[in-house]
Amino acid sequence: MGPGAGSEEEGGGRAPSAVRVRPRTEVPQATADVDRSDSAYRAWLKDAVRKVQADANRSADTHLLLFPLPEAWGIDLYLKDESTHPTGSLKHRLARSLFLYGLCNGWIRPGKPVIEASSGSTAVSEAYFAKLIGVPFVAVMPRTTSPEKIRLIEFHGGRCHFVDDPRTMYEESATLAERTGGHYMDQFTYAERATDWRGNNNIAESVYQQLRRERYPEPAWIVATAGTGGTSATIARYVHYMQHDTRICVPDPENSCFFDGWTHADPDASSDCGSRIEGIGRPRMEPSFVPGAIDRMMKVPDAASVAAVRALERAIGRKAGGSTGTGLWSAFRIVAEMVERGERGSVVTLICDGGERYLDKYYSDAWLAEQGLDIGPYSAAIDGFLRTARLGA
Fold first, then answer.
1. Distance (Å, rounded) from C-alpha 228 to C-alpha 62?
2. What are the beta bridge partners of residue 299?
3. CB neighbourhood size of 158 (10 A)
4. 391 Cβ contact list (under 8 Å, min separation 6)
5. Is 173:159 a contact under the CB 8 Å cutoff?
6. Contact, 221 vs 248, CB < 8 A?
7. N or C: which end of the chain has fewer CB within 10 A?
8. Do residues 315 and 294 touch, judged by C-beta distance below 8 A?
9. Domain Tryptophan synthase beta chain-like PALP spans what residues (predicted)?
């Protein structure tokens, strides 16, 4: 299959305003077993919030890296390197926001477990914050999650609870929370509301601050892949709130329903199997995915995603996860279109996490063969793009 095959795209406009994601039924919280006016609980809560906020205060902002493109093109391509967070991924921001949200709502309680449905990186980051404030953590995840992510969750003191069907993660997490008296964090519902999208050093505000001395300080496009949809929602809302002209593109991998749901205004869109690109793509339209805020979506073949992360390593010497490749392939397409139209400007995408977690997947030729993925045509297309600014049909 050539680089253009299977690479459907819907561009040049937003999904109809009637698109709405079906609200999820709220999972009742377990009956409180502490008096929230009790001084011991309030002291614990204040200390927990302080520790989570102190983590942010200790962390320098993540780097904005420049991808080498020919100077004559007049286009700058940047990668926001979220792999440098303490837990190694973009999900560190989300986990911090979710813990603050849960603590300040009175949902996370001393001694009670925090439970999350996660394919890996969110669970790694949440395990870190659970350990930081001294509560147990359980990650409900597909059995196919990479061994390195499982190791990292356990390294931070978390426990892994496996399911065979990714579609059962939600119910299993809610059941565990009810049975243990813990809190189901539910990133797929709360990601878009736990983060302060108006500013407060969110990822969008950070990007614009870091670009302010560049030759094109307001990017033409920001490309953000979607797992929960929280990052794309935060960036899009910030762009609209600040009245920037930047447009937002969300690439979607194979075996994910976001593209179809956005394109056909279908809140009930679904997929029968899970994404091979860990951390992004979902089998259902998630509550935190905000279709109306997005300008464009692309459907990206998994082989193109893998080819792109390998090209990234050749270009800047950095390994990254498959979701980074999904975004980078889309960014390449956008740059090619801009060059063809004679436009100048900047494009930003994300390094979502490091590739060391996926050495047995996206950097393994044996895994590619097992999955039936041929990255050769896409690698050739990228090499051609970097010479000619044309990515292929």
1. 21
2. 252
3. 25
4. 3, 332, 333, 336, 381, 382, 384, 385
5. no
6. yes
7. C
8. no
9. 68-353
Q: What is the layout of strands, in order, in the sheet containing 159-163?
A: 159-163, 137-142, 114-117, 183-184
| Cα 151 from Cα 159, distance rounded (Å) | 10
Q: Cα separation of 112 and 124, whole Å?
A: 18
pLDDT tens-digit readout, 158-207: 999 999 887 788 999 999 999 999 999 999 999 999 988 987 779 999 99
pLDDT digit string, tens, across residues 57-79: 887 689 999 999 999 999 999 99
Is residue 177 within 8 Å of residue 166, measured between CB atoms?
no
In angstroms, the Cα distances linking 32 to 107, 173, 359 are 9, 19, 44
What is the rounded CA–CA span in Å between residue 201 and residue 245? 20
Give the residue carrying structure tokens 């560190």: 92
CA distances to 96, 105, 189, 207, 276 from 194, in Å = 9, 11, 9, 19, 27
| Token pair belonging to 300 | 């990206």
The CA distance from 175 to 20, in Å, is 27
Does the pLDDT value for residue 13 go beyond 90? no
Instruction: Specify the residue for token string 């904005």.
Output: 64
Which pLDDT band holds residue 120 (cuts at 50, 70, 90)?
confident
Q: What does the pLDDT read at residue 37?
A: 67
Q: What is the DSSP letter of 267?
A: T
**Which ranges constitute the DSSP H helices of 13-168?**
39-58, 91-104, 121-133, 147-155
**CATH 3.40.50.1100 domain locations along the chain:** 59-87+203-386, 89-192
**Class for the domain spanning 59-87+203-386:** alpha beta
Distance, in Å, from the CA atom of 336 to the CA atom of 300, rounded to the nearest integer, reads 16
What's 284-328 look like in SS3?
A: ECCCCCCHHHCCEEEECCHHHHHHHHHHHHHHHCCCECHHHHHHH
Evaluate whether the domain defined by 89-192 bears CATH number 3.40.50.1100: yes
